[in-house]
Each structure stands twice: as structure tokens, then as C-alpha cells.
Amino acid sequence: MSKRPITVRAAAALEAAEGLVAVGFGVYTGVETAAGAAVDPASAIGVTVLALGGGIGMLACARGLLRADQWSRAPTVLTQLFALPVAWSLWQSERPAIAIPLGLAAVLALVTVLSPPSTAWLLEDHDEDDGDDEDAGGDEDGGGDEDGGIGDGDRNGLSDGEDAEEAPRPRQEPRSLGRRLRERLKEQPTEK
Question: What pLDDT score does 137 carry?
């Protein structure tokens, strides 16, 4: 396994910070709404739900970046692209104390998550993580096996009762969808 680039750690930290702020804002608006301080309770409830859901989603994306989950990159980019017009709107409404940090965080997160080291690391096939992320079933992509559901132990010549850690696990399928697609495209005959 290659070492996690600083750009991925920075992108995850920025995404997590924004997620924590969103969750905090959701809790604040929820408390204010429950206390009866909201001018329009229906809108305040909607803002509360959106802020809490968005914040939890951003925290999940940050965790996914740290775990090299490829799905986490697109929603991270989207949240930053959504943050830029919000920062601009806050700037125009003369709230630079909020607009500047939000805009800077969004730009920095975009630069770090789209940087070549981040892209290369997120597209890499990570067979073994730090040990705390392994699934109980051994199927890292969560999609099951394409060969009819045969478990990892059976592919390695081990029965289900034997310890799979004694023998190295050869990987028959790459983890990433991108690599599987590239390999299938290479297998296709080309017309001349």
C-alpha cells in the first residue's frame, strides 16, 4: 500500500471541517426552531434537515477520502462547487467574515482533491488498508463476487474453515470500476 498523500489528507480535513460547521449550524437552527425563535418554522425545519443531512454527508465523504473510496471524490467536488456560489452570495451581502473562509476552504479543497497525487492515490488499487477497515466477509468492494458468489477462501483453494491469512490472497478482479472498464476495453477487438 502506498502512503496517503498530503493532498488527500488536506482535502479530507477541509471537507470534514465544512461538514462539522454544517452539522453545528443544523443543530443551532433546530434548537432555535424548537425554542420558538424562528420567524418561519417550516423553513427553519427544512434548513435544519438540509444542514444536518449535508453535514453528515460531507463527514462521510471526508472519511471516504481517507479510506481511498473512489465514490467520495465526486460528492466532495460537488459540495465545494456548491460552496463557491454560497460564498459569493455571502460576500455580496456584506458578510466577509463568513464568505472569505468558506471561499478559501472551497478553493483549497477543490485544488487538493483534484490534484494529481490525490487522483493517482484514489485510483490506485488498495489491497490491504491499515487493518481497521477490512470487511468481515473479505469483499472490499461490497458488490459480491462476479463468479457466482464464491467466497475469497474458495478462490484461494482454502475451505471456509481454514485461516485465509496464512496464504497470500491473489486478487482476480481489480477493486476499482475504472480499472475493470479499462481492462474490458483492452479486451475488445478493434475494427480496422
Answer: 43
